[in-house]
Design brief:
By secondary structure, the protein is mainly α. The protein is about 70% helix and about 0% strand. The chain contains twelve helices and two strands, in the order H-H-H-H-H-H-H-H-H-H-H-E-E-H. It starts with a helix and ends in a 28-residue tail after the last helix.
Length: about 350
Amino acid sequence: MQLHDVWFVLIAVLWIGYFFLEGFDFGIGILTRLLARDRAERRVLINTIGPVWDGNEVWLLTAGGATFAAFPDWYATLFSGFYLPLLAILVCLIVRGVAFEYRHKRSEERWQRGWEQAIFWTSLLPAFLWGVAFANMVHGVAIDQQKNYTGSVLDLLNPYAVLGGLTTLVLFTFHGALFAALKTVGEIRLRARALALQLGLVTAVLALVFLVWTQVDRGTGGSMGALVVAVPALLGAMFAVRLGREGWAFALSGLTVVAVVSMLFLALFPNVMPSTLNPDWSLTVANASSAPYTLKLMTVVAAVFTPIVLLYQGWTYWVFRKRIGVQHIPAGEHLPAGDHRPAGAEG
């Protein structure tokens, strides 16, 4: 296996990790309007991701940086061709982070309601747009001989890409509902389980159609294997939540996310961006990669720092592993939206 193949796999792993973690993160943001009935319950949901949401985004930064360094032509074509959707995602992530930190700064109803609306929309839009972007990347776009994207923004909103966006949107919301059921107590936990069952049915239909379409369009033997894993994992998550086993349900929904993203990368390889104008103009792991020396240096750096990041993030989730409920929200107190005190620590 060549180093550029290794780095394609590593970048795929980074995106898988990002969507696994940020997937339930986005889902929680969407559920602040779909599940929570009042401000206290919205606060509970936000606090379930308060200690971890910013750490989850490290995976995105790392994936973007690794793509820039390992596959500069892929990075250049992707970010120039998909400029407006990716800019919209970036703006949403910035506003979302500001909303988490500024929501508690003032107690006025209008102020807090505005930031809560921002959290909802800046979670929903990226969850949809990431699916659109990756579906286009797998399906192929108009790339010319100079490796430039020659299509328009409207070309990116083709039926397959829109279906991909709807699939990730509903899948992440389902993933978030199971995380909410796993991390909360009381009535909101029961409602999260009930909503997860409803979302699971919609997710199963959309995901099955999207994944089968992907397999027919760009499928390989490896992507077929991922499809075989994704569908049973999703059904297993629904069965587990019906039995009240939130831990198993969340693990299986996470496996579904992993299988879906893996299928996209397996269908893509050895291309990184297929050209619909001429297959010979497609970007591949070979013609879009950096020099071997750059890849060797990156491999050494990744081998040293990746275990450190994984240990630190794993420790964070362990520390903040307890469930929380409305009883843990001090009445009349406006704490930070991501209050990092463990559940029950309020005195």
